[in-house]
């Protein structure tokens, strides 16, 4: 067992909300030279919840994602991923590639990163490459169908077809991914991440650039993923209609520091959040409160 994995049950006396957290972020700090992009951030993402991470431009949201998903090693702090069956991973200690296939955390990017020259179907199969290579035993015999490779390959194709159907792109399976309209590419990227069977799916601005119809389709897809797969979602989003409609829990960052953490309703009425979005100074918060009537 690696140093980053424990299977110990939650300590007696641990608060219920903590036992039910799929992800616990504790005292996360990320510095780039003299710049503190994330400052002593702690929050929980509930199992089966949709948790939104919001904040003005440059607040540190993508940096938090990059730490959780293994792209950055944080300067300080712990990020604990608890799988339902009891395995616990300290994400900051895992090599970047293990965060996806071992801890089962998947992500999408602010700028879509599909393989645009590959077909839609191929994009969903490539996502399952790791599993297939393991099934092949990393040998030619495996690839020729001796051992579990063939059955796993059939399962990979079935899974890809399932997600094609879910995102309504079965008819476009053989088209290059780069030929799809923007909204379809966004949904394909989510489907590709789901092909890795994540426990936690991190979405960086999934609604960016979508029109209202596409944004509604996205909301439906994310709610379906939560309901049908039981996947927990963590999303960065600027589109407040998406945040308010589908999130269970919202964490607000400003200049790398958490300024609020609560339900969408609580966040909407929080004067500190209103002030951060309006860009006012701390000593003007009371004035803003009076103006917005909270
Ligand atoms: N690799 C890096 N090197 C140096 N500074 C960085 C790096 N990545 C991010 N930053 C800085 O850290 C701060 C937080 O950036 P980050 O991209 O995390 O914010 P954000 O909340 O995601 O912003 P946006 O909503 O505009 O995407 C910014 O000041 C940014 O310039």
TrEMBL record:
Keyword field contains Nucleotide-binding: yes
Gene Ontology biological-process annotations: D-alanine transmembrane transport; L-alanine transport; L-isoleucine import across plasma membrane; L-valine import across plasma membrane
InterPro entries membership: AAA+_ATPase, ABC_AA/LPS_Transport, ABC_transporter-like_ATP-bd, BCA_ABC_TP_C, P-loop_NTPase
Domain ABC transporter: 23-280
GO molecular function, one term: ATP binding
UniProt xrefs under SUPFAM superfamilies: P-loop containing nucleoside triphosphate hydrolases
Domain of life of the organism encoding this protein: Bacteria
Database matches in SMART domains: AAA (SM00382)
One of the record's GO cellular component terms: plasma membrane
Family, per entry: Belongs to the ABC transporter superfamily.
Pfam families hit by this protein: ABC_tran (PF00005), BCA_ABC_TP_C (PF12399)
Naturally occurring in which organism (per UniProt): Salinarimonas soli
Keyword ATP-binding: yes
Signal peptide: none
Keyword terms, alphabetized: Amino-acid transport, ATP-binding, Nucleotide-binding, Transport
UniProt-recorded name of the protein: ABC transporter ATP-binding protein
């Amino acid at each position: 067992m690696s140093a980053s994995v424990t299977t110990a049950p939650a300590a007696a006396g641990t608060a219920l909300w903590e036992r039910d957290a799929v992800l616990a972020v504790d005292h996360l700090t990320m510095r780039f030279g003299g710049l503190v992009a994330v400052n002593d951030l702690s929050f929980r993402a509930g199992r089966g919840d949709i948790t939104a991470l919001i904040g003005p431009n440059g607040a540190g949201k993508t940096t938090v994602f990059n730490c959780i998903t293994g792209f950055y090693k944080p300067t300080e702090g712990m990020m604990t991923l608890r799988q339902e069956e009891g395995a616990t991973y300290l994400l900051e200690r895992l090599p970047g590639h293990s965060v996806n296939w071992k801890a089962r955390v998947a992500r999408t990017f602010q700028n879509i990163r599909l393989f645009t020259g590959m077909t839609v179907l191929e994009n969903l199969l490539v996502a399952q490459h790791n599993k297939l290579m393991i099934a092949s035993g990393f040998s030619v015999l495996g690839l020729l169908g001796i051992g579990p490779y063939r059955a796993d390959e059939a399962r990979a194709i079935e899974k890809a077809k399932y997600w094609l159907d879910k995102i309504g792109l079965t008819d476009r399976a053989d088209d290059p991914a780069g030929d799809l309209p923007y909204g379809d590419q966004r949904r394909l990227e989510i489907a590709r991440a789901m092909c890795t069977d994540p426990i936690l799916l991190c979405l960086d601005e999934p609604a960016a650039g979508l029109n209202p119809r596409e944004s509604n389709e996205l909301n439906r897809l994310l709610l379906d993923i939560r309901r049908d797969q039981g996947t927990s979602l963590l999303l960065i989003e600027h589109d407040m209609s998406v945040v308010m409609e589908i999130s269970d829990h919202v964490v607000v960052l400003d200049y790398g520091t958490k300024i609020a953490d609560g339900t969408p309703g609580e966040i909407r009425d929080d004067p500190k959040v209103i002030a951060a979005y309006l860009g006012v100074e701390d000593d003007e918060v009371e004035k803003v409160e009076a103006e917005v009537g909270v």
